[in-house]
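Dear Dr. H.,

I hope your travels went smoothly. While you were away I took the liberty of generating a structure for the chain from your last submission, since the lab meeting agenda had it listed for discussion. I wanted you to have the full record in hand beforehand rather than looking at slides cold. The sequence, exactly as received, is reproduced here:
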Amino acid sequence: GRAMALAALDVAYDADVVAATTAEITSFKDRSKKAGDALTDAKKKLDEKRAALKSADEGKAEAQKVLDEINAQVSAIPADKPDEALIKKQSEAKTKLEALAKSRTEAAEAIKPVESTAKDAEAEVIKVNQLLANAEKSAAGAKATQATATQTLKKATDDLTAANKTFADAGKILPTFLLS
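The corresponding predicted structure, in token form, is as follows:
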């Protein structure tokens, strides 16, 4: 009876452990999906920021090329005969280049926090997947322990049933034995 009671307690405890690890796995799977979605989103934003930087680099390079061509034209004109229209064009090209250089700097700065977010999201995915793997391992162990405890309970129940039958049989034989 005592072995059976202990086995029953083990089975109940193991059932609780299995339920807890199963809940933990469900939670980690949800967290893993969210981390994966965050990583995908961060990578998409990072690609967008990198595309904006590339576009800013190309725009700046083009503006520099235009300014260089105008500068060459300005330097070819004699100093005593300035071309006002060309000098105005040169001033506008410098202003445009400065604006594009500023945009390029802003685009480069905008990448940094997004890169950081992507790196954090990637680290979270790795961490959560490791936690999930550990929880799945714990669940497998708990299920194996539960199966062993269930077998122990079944054996204790079978042993008790057999002992009761033996006792009952002995009870039937004893009066006959005593009377003979």
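Two observations you may find useful: The mean pLDDT is 90. The two ends are 34 Å apart (CA to CA).

With kind regards,
E. W.
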